[in-house]
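subagent[fold] <- orchestrator: predict structure for attached chain, return tokens only, no commentary.
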Amino acid sequence: MVFDLPEEHEALRATVREFAEREVAPVAEELDRTEAFPYEIVRKLGELGWMGIPFPEAYGGAGADTLAYALVVEGLARVDSSVAITLCAHTSLGTQPIYLFGSEEQKAAWLPLLTSGERLAAFGLTEPEAGSDAGNARTRATLADGEWVVDGAKQFITNAGTDISAVVSITAVTGEADGRREISNLLVPNGTPGFEVGEPYRKMGWHASDTRPLAFTGCRVPEANLLGTRGAGLRQFLAVLDIGRIGIAAMGVGLAQGALDQSLRYARERRAFGRPIGRFQAIQAKLADMATEVEAARLLTYKAASLKDAGRPFSLAAAQAKLKSGLVALRAVDDAVQIHGGYGYVEEYPVCRFYRDAKILTIGEGTDEIQRLVIARELGVA
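subagent[fold] -> orchestrator:
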């Protein structure tokens, strides 16, 4: 068993770290404070090929693997979670459904725009009455005269309302089959009449990420905008969520690593009672626990990515990695703020922003409670 990264992955990790320190870190606090979307950073991420890193070169992607994708997400989240989730949601959730389930015509129309980062894609699953209970969707699409007529609402949707947002993949009830609701996936381009993007939410964290509600009122899209097989929507989106959990796990690892990095730096510089606070056992214990837990979460995340790349079942590992990394991130930022003392509570220090950004990692892409149910199911006890 080899724990060292392959040479090309190690080089990628170093490149992402240098990019994050040079391009993201200097503007992260201002983007967070002003709640400004990071258009310029997204453009640069696209130029580097990272907005389409796990997709084949034939569709404009970088042709890299899932482990490389996780490394990019981790490296960005180490500095700023808003930038990381913008890439993560676009790649794992927005673009992945088109790549996995789209027709060749749909792939040709959308993937080059999306993998280049020129335009963004979104993923519309959550509704006011359909969060963890994803099958309880109320959005409906009725086929009439060769068009799907969509009515309903989605909420907490990332990347749907920016100036470069292009398309959202949504679940909708398209009929009844054997007494059960038939759920399908549809592509709805931005600007379609009847598709309204709401005002951005005022959030605890991820301030520079675009998150909004969506409304569909008599919204008409061509019949050909059906994504994959009619009635396969729930199964398709659950498969996408498995992949997305690897990205969110990588975000948790990156954020926790960033909290550790900031804490180590502060512990070496801050002096109390005549010496650096890092000399005190209470601080050393926190740092030791943080480092150990971050490494455990990292190994779980890399395992899930490697299993997927090997074509092996990865649902269990992805759920475990997502659950573990979110909890580790919460503990790491809590300890980081405590180590910083009063300074950890002011926005001048990154750990204050990290603290606000961490909580959503235990909610998005399936709550911790849902992850435990998934894990139990994979263990054969649910």
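orchestrator: received. Logging for downstream: The CA atoms of residues 138 and 152 lie 7 Å apart. The mean pLDDT is 96.
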